Amino acid sequence: MAEVFRHQDGLASSMGDVLGILEKWRHSPPPDDLDGAVAELEAAFRFLKGAEGSMCASVRLGLAMVLGNLHRDAGNTEQALQAYDRGAQESVDLSENPARNEMANLHTNRAIALLGVMDAARALEDLEKAIRLRESLPLDEEPVFRWGFAAGWINRGDALRMLSRHDEAVASYQRGLQELEPLEPGEAVKWRRAVAWNNRGLALRELAREEEAMASFAKSIDELEGGEEPRAVIARSAAMLHRGDDPQQVLAIVSPLERQSAEAAEVSLKARHGLARRLCDKLGGSEGDWIADATDLVEEGLELERAWETAGVESMRPVACDLFRLGLRVYRICQPQFLAEFVLESLDPEVSDGAPVDDPHFQAAAVEEVGRALRESLERGVSGERGEKELAIGKSLRAADERLAALITSRA
């Protein structure tokens, strides 16, 4: 983690200090002492407060973007958006290429934050502004301008795909890949191309163009063959999973990174989902370890998603909800005595931090399965050897049903 350097009395005392703070945090990850980093950036803002001129406005724009990036990467989306909005209000001279590029950077970074909270419509607006700002820049003279221009098109594809505008998304990814072609094929360019090929494949799959999608996934994997950087491992693993490779193999590759990277966590979650579904093809068959293996995968995946929810990442919620439904079904059919515990562990915030109790899809799935389990318990009856066990199951399910009702009502 980056070390926080504090200026005397927490103040920036010169323009040199301000520029040093800006460059220091421009490419740094969130430090352990995020408050200290924020204090440095705010000190730089204070030094420039009321200062006129294009240069001062451009520096404030940069400070706002850096502050937004630190908050975004730390999972503080609301604070990140406030910082980006602060920078977008600066009156910079957009006839100057560096200022034009910096404003485009701000719009792109704000869009990435918006995509993280599934606000694709607003993200698309930002990305199209970034593209318009950069299209008149000397792309052939400055590789960094072309890199940003390509990133705008690729992220625009992500926004369009999230909005189910898949034909447009494919075209946007293609344009981004085209813009990357003139750049030297270093690790960063290979990674960016791999991400674009992978996401293009997902858009093609939504259009039922499966052969083209599989070719796109293969290109993504080829781009990163042998890459050992974490982001290369994550991107290659995602493409492998989407291509249909063994999810057990993918999980083994990417799970060591799942607590450090939201992208890795999403791939891990999808791999667990695929493995659990494969195990559940045996549902209704003979008893065996598959039940324990499937429920372990479900619970590990949901715990992982909750951990990222507490860090402000909501993009894994749809996959987590599918995994939750799968777990509900396995417990209801195979181990109804544990269903109530599973439901409350997954949805009660007093039991688990980050529990998505406000999500209507989670709520509906839980209410439906608990109700069905109660009816099935009544149908089995309480006579014979299973009588005491059925009474205990019914009692736990009724308690879970009442707790669910209270949680849902309190948030209505």
Overall description:
The chain is mainly α and 412 residues long. The chain has a domain at 260-412. Helices cover 72% and strands 0% of the residues. The protein is built from 18 helices and no strands. The protein starts with 14 loop residues before the first helix and ends with a helix. Mean pLDDT is 89; it is low at 1-10.
Characteristics:
412 residues; Tetratricopeptide repeat protein; TPR-like_helical_dom_sf; disordered N terminus; TPR_rpt; repeat; mainly alpha
Beta strand count: 0
**Oligomerization:** single chain
What proportion strand? under 5%
**End-to-end distance, in Å?**
41 Å
Roughly how many Å is the radius of gyration?
A: 25 Å
**What structural category characterises the helix and strand content?**
mainly alpha
Largest sheet: none
What is the helix content? over 70%
Rounded mean pLDDT is: 89
Q: What is the overall number of helices?
A: 18
